[in-house]
Design a protein that fits this description.
By secondary structure, the protein is an alpha+beta fold. It is built from eleven helices and 13 strands. The chain has a domain of 95 residues: Barwin-like endoglucanases, CATH 2.40.40. Helix 2 packs antiparallel against helix 3 and helix 8 crosses helix 9.
Length: 365
């Protein structure tokens, strides 16, 4: 009898572990502003300049086009539906938090996002990294930053590192640190300081289409680092202290990112708008359209840090996958690097939608 019970338990556990995971699906639940923790305390007006940049990108498109052609999850409206709220935002007095709060409360409905009804997700940070480089190969500058080739999906990272793209004139710049080059790919944008002191901005220009493998997760699985100690800074330090093992670890991530030179202000997000430190969020564009105002509530997993702020969906990232997943842009410099590198939070977000869009997406009882 005991053997039968154990067999049944084992079968149930096996079924639970092996059952297919549901396909990621964005679900929305209408909410009220009183439910948004910290809404009254946030400097909401600080997000308005970022929102207006997104408005410029949205309203420049055809009136009846989708808000974001790459978002297939739900119907988030058209530039025509968003044009009135964008016009109203332009009239807001600069820096007036109360006016900004009233603007959103009057014109938008908050809707809690979920993955098949589950609202919790992972939120990390990124920043504009600085590297030392040259336009020509030589001396310490031996690691190439590549332009996007005509067939970007052909090679894996290992094949590219072994020279698959060499000789085609695709080298945009050469940098002095392969570890920094790897983290440039993770950040998606950066500044390269040339020998004469000039600064070249580079930005994301697509990837090789291969799956992204998080090297931090590999270090955890192999008991190299405990989960609570894994940050960008600790991974970089480990790679520097273990150059051979670090190089091998990087090759286990087949994903590879290509770059283009960015003239003028930056960095630019996937919406081709200049990102705003602390107010721009990278999302999975398959589920969340770029340009959307988003109320973020998250709690650091390994510290007491909290995030309660209005952000704008303006960017994407190779590791940002799923209906409830975000990457907060921290800006440039040491403080930004430290903050972004340490951010590892769990939480949820509310999408702020114009009334006409929210009415269409609100589940009917």
């Amino acid at each position: 009898m005991i053997g039968l019970v154990l067999a049944l338990i084992a079968g149930a556990v096996a079924y639970y572990l092996l059952r297919p995971k549901p396909i990621p699906r964005l679900t929305l639940a209408a909410a009220k502003y009183e439910q948004l923790t910290g809404w009254r305390e946030d400097a909401v007006a600080a997000a308005i300049p970022a929102f207006l940049k997104s408005c410029a990108a949205v309203t420049a498109r055809a009136e009846g086009a989708p808000l974001d052609a790459r978002t297939k999850s739900l119907d988030f409206g058209t530039p025509g539906e968003w044009r009135p709220v964008c016009a109203a935002a332009e009239k807001l007095p600069a820096g007036d938090d109360n006016a900004a709060r009233e603007f959103f409360e009057a014109g938008f409905v908050p809707m809690l996002a979920g993955n098949n009804g589950h609202p919790e997700g992972l939120f990390t940070g990124y920043y504009e990294i600085t590297l030392n480089g040259s336009r020509k190969r030589g001396g310490a500058f031996q690691t190439p930053i590549y332009r996007r080739p005509s067939d970007p999906n052909r090679f894996t990272r290992a094949e590219i590192e072994d020279g698959a793209l060499a000789g085609y004139g695709l080298e945009l710049l050469w940098v002095d640190d392969p570890i920094a080059a790897f983290f440039l790919e993770i950040q998606g944008s950066g500044r390269v300081r040339l020998p004469d002191g000039a600064i070249v901005r580079v930005g994301y220009d697509g990837g090789n289409g291969k799956p992204y493998v998080a090297v931090g997760r590999l270090l955890i699985e192999r008991n190299v680092m405990p989960r609570e100690q894994v940050t960008m800074a600790s991974i970089r330090r480990w790679m520097a202290e273990h150059p051979k093992e670090g190089a091998e670890l990087r090759r286990e991530n087949p994903s590879f990112i290509f770059f283009r030179e960015i003239p003028g202000d930056g960095p630019l997000g996937a919406q081709r708008t200049v990102l705003t430190a602390g107010r721009s969020l990278a999302v999975d564009r398959a589920f969340i359209p770029l340009g959307l105002p988003v109320w973020l509530e998250a709690q650091e997993r390994f510290s007491k840090g909290k995030y309660r702020r209005l952000v704008i969906a303006q960017d994407t990232g190779g590791a940002i996958r799923g209906p409830v997943r975000g990457d907060l842009f921290w800006g440039f410099g040491k403080e930004a690097a430290d903050g972004a590198g340490a951010m590892n939070a769990r939480g949820h977000y509310y999408l702020l939608l114009p009334h006409s869009v929210a009415a269409r997406l609100t589940p009917r009882s």
